[in-house]
Amino acid sequence: MEQTVELIELTEGNLEEKGCYCLRSKPNSVGYKGKNEWLKGKFHDGLKYIKINENNKQAGFIEYVPIERSSRVVYGENYLVIHCLWVGITGKGYASQLIESCIQDAKKQQKAGVIVVTNPDTSWTPSKEVFIKNGFEEVDHAPYGFELLVYKNSNSANPHFPTDWEERLQRFEKLTILRTPQCPFIDVATDNVLIGANKLEIETTTIDLKDRRELLELSPTPYGVYGVVYKKQLIAYHRLTTHSAYKRLKELS
C-alpha cells in the first residue's frame, strides 16, 4: 500500500480541528488546552507549528519561531529558533524532512539561519545527532549538558548562551518554579514538585515568565520554559516524578 505523507501547518483557523501533537491523547487536560491558547497568541509573532502525517496519522511535528519571540535563553540576531522536534514514527526520515522545511523557511524569510538547543540528558529537548546530520554545527554549551547548534545561511555572528548561570541561581533561596506555557507538560511537572514540597512543608513560589525579557533575565538554564531552583541549586529543568521531586528536595532540606 502506497504511503501518503503530508506536512500540515497549524493556523489559528485550523487549530481547533487539527490540534497540537503533544498531549493530544488528553485534549481536555489543562496542559493541552493551555498549549492551544498559547499557540493562538503566538502565530501572529511568526511562530510555525508543522505536523507531519503518514496516511492521515500524526507522525511528528516541529515548532519554531523568530529568536526575538523564542522561549530559549540564547542571544543572536535574525535567526529562527526550533523549540521542539518530535517524531513518533521513526526510521523514515521524517525528522530530517521537518528540519529541512524549517531551513527552507529560514532562507525564504532571509534569516541568518536556524538555532536549536539540545541536551542528551532529557527527552524534553531534541537529540543533537539528527541536526548534525542535517548540517548544523555546535557553537556553544552551558551547564547541565546544554548544547547550542546552528545552521547558518550567512556569515552572521554565531548565536551564544549567557555566561552568568551561577549568578542566576544565587537569586533563589526559597523553592521557586519558573515557567512559561510553551510546553503542555509544564502543568504536570509543576504539580509533581508541589506534591513533594507539600509533603516536606516547603513553601513554594511560582513565577510565570510573562515575556522574553524576563526569561532572558531569570531562567536558570537555556531551556527557558521550565526550571526549579531551591537553596540556590537547580532542582530540575524537565519533569520529575513526584518521588524524584520529593527525594531531591529532602536532600536539600
TrEMBL record:
<dbReference type="GO" id="GO:0016747">
    <property type="term" value="F:acyltransferase activity, transferring groups other than amino-acyl groups"/>
</dbReference>
<dbReference type="InterPro" id="IPR000182">
    <property type="entry name" value="GNAT_dom"/>
</dbReference>
<dbReference type="InterPro" id="IPR016181">
    <property type="entry name" value="Acyl_CoA_acyltransferase"/>
</dbReference>
<feature type="domain" description="N-acetyltransferase">
    <location>
        <begin position="5"/>
        <end position="155"/>
    </location>
</feature>
<dbReference type="Pfam" id="PF00583">
    <property type="entry name" value="Acetyltransf_1"/>
</dbReference>
<protein>
    <submittedName>
        <fullName>Acetyltransferase</fullName>
    </submittedName>
</protein>
